[in-house]
Structures are given as C-alpha cells and as structure tokens.
Known about the structure:
Strand content: 5-15%
Largest sheet: 4 strands, parallel
Structural class: alpha/beta
CATH class of the largest domain: Alpha Beta
Number of strands: 8
CATH topology of the largest domain: Rossmann fold
Strand order of the largest sheet: 2-1-3-4
Amino acid sequence: xxxxxxxxxxxxxxxxxxxxxxxxxxxxxxxxxxxxxxxxxxxxxxxxxxxxxxxxxxxxxxxxxxxxxxxxxxxxxxxxxxxxxxxxxxxxxxxxxxxxxxxxxxxxxxxxxxxxxxxxxxxxxxxxxxxxxxxxxxxxxxxxxxxxxxxxxxxxxxxxxxxxxxxxxxxxxxxxxxxxxxxxxxxxxxxxxxxxxxxxxxxxxxxxxxxxxxxxxxxxxxxxxxxxxxxxxxxxxxxxxxxxxxxxxxxxxxxxxxxxxxxxxxxxxxxxxxxxxxxxxxxxxxxxxxxxxxxxxxxxxxxxxxxxxxxxxxxxxxxxxxxxxxxxxxxxxxxxxxxxxxxxxxxxxxxxxxxxxxxxxxxxxxxxxxx
Length: 371
C-alpha cells in the first residue's frame, strides 16, 4: 500500500503562462519584475505568445499532468492526498494555492517542480518564491512546512521516455537518412554565470544535461542498433548581447550541421517536461523554419508530458521522499553517470547572483516560527 505520510498535500509548482492576449504583457511584467528589462524587449517576447493567440500552452499541459497524477495516485491508494497546483507568475498563484491548502487543513506539503534540472531559474527561484509565500502566510498566522522531491533529470522514467521519443522521431525521417541523422538535444539557454553557480559545486546545469543526453543516446543506440551521434544546443536566449549565455543556439547549430554534411536531424527538447512556449515557438516554429530554409530534414521528438512511465516516475518520487521524511532507508534509482540529487539543497546551491534571498527546502532556510 502506498504511503505519502507525513505529507497531507502534494503541490505541482510551475512557471505559469497567459490564458489570452490581455494577459500577455502583465504576465511578462510578473516574470521580469525587478530586472529592468526594457519595454521593447517585453513587446518582442509578447509576439511569441500572440503568434499562438496570446495563450501559453503550459497551463493546459499542467492541467493534463494534474489529471494524470491524480489517476496514478488514486490507483496506488493515495486518493485522500490533495493535489494542488500553484504558479510563480500567473493564476493560480502560489501564495493563493498555499493559503487555500492551509484553510483546508494542510500543514506539511510536498512539492514537485515542473523543472527537472539544477539552476537558479529552474530550482532556487522556485524555492525563493516558496519562502516568500510562506513568510506572507505566516504574517496571516498561517504556518506550513514545505519539502520537495529531488531533481528528476536522471530518474530512469525521465530518460526512458525521452529515449522512446527520440527513437520515434527517427522513424519520421526518410529511411535512407536515419542511420546518419544527428540528434540535437535542446534546453533553455541561461547566462554562463548562472551555470557557473548551478548546483552545489557549480556547472551542474550543463553537467546534468550532458549526462541525460549521453544516457538517452545510449538507450536509443541500443534500441535501434545504430550508434547515435548527438550534440547539446540551446534555445530562448533573452539576455543583452554583452552578457555571455550558453551556446550554441539551436538555429546556428542546425546551419553548422548542414554545412558539415549531416543528412538529417532529430531535435529533442530534453530540457523541458512539456511543450512550453519555448518548444512551440523556438523549436516547432523557428528551428523548423531554419531547417526548411537550409534543406535539412528535421523531426522534433516529443517531451515527456503526461507519458504514463513519466507520471509513474513522479509518483515514485513522491513515495521516495515521503519514506525519507519518515526516516526510512529507501532505494533512489538513477540512470546515467550521476548520483541521485539532494532533496534538501546545500548552502549556496544555485546561488542568486543578484541578491541573497531566503529559499525554502535548503539547509540554511529558517522557516517562520509561530510564537
């Protein structure tokens, strides 16, 4: 029988996105508040959303993931565990979700981020928002304890579903081109400086993606019988030209591969758990257009989304973290060449380069105390 104790609620914590054209600029202002991003830059990014009617796909994808999690949890006998959804940047906002959870009786909440890797923007910023929400609620006399599951980039379910997606995408290419096709793994670019402080020892963001890419390519090679050549590229750069960000850009890389004589590519967005705007616009629109322009056969692998093995893996992580909270010894499976991630972040992990802010679920976090 599954056991989620001592937790009395499970929170899916995500980025959030606009639901219509009128939401786009307010949403982008929420995302960039305090960073001094020029209005014209926001307007440029807004066009990405307006290209799809002003609605981000992420909210519907989160609703689908919530339903899939609910089905899996119910099947394991976890039907009594409330399943919550909160966003950092758009409705339903995190603080409102936690307030409602407290009103419903929750006191200890386990969190799953919709981000699989270590970085400031992919982990610590979520932790900072949790700490801010918990502080706001404490001022209202509401006290909650919050934990998180470990980073799941190297959970066997995550890598296996990505490997299946790459193998399926290869079949979309002309048969005579498959053996020579290159797999281009793609993730969101971040500033070099952010990667340098990611994880406990620095460089974790790139290191973790390279590990996933190697493992997925290994699994695809084993399943197809053909050694898979691969590269790691990046999308969605948004910083000023003077600030170094991780490269190569996926569009530049596709052109370079074509110039080298690579006959076809599979683009695999391993940095994303679902078809976010970065996938729909940066890959399905811009990268696909680049491939068409240069005459490079192109197929895009699916994200893990709501694939049943991935959803089962997330619930496995919930059970794993609950067992750890109960003080039990538990197996923590991984795939690839890196160990399982921590569940309580070390001091300075994924450091905020702009300010030293409280971040929940860390060794140095001091939660509000009722007096």
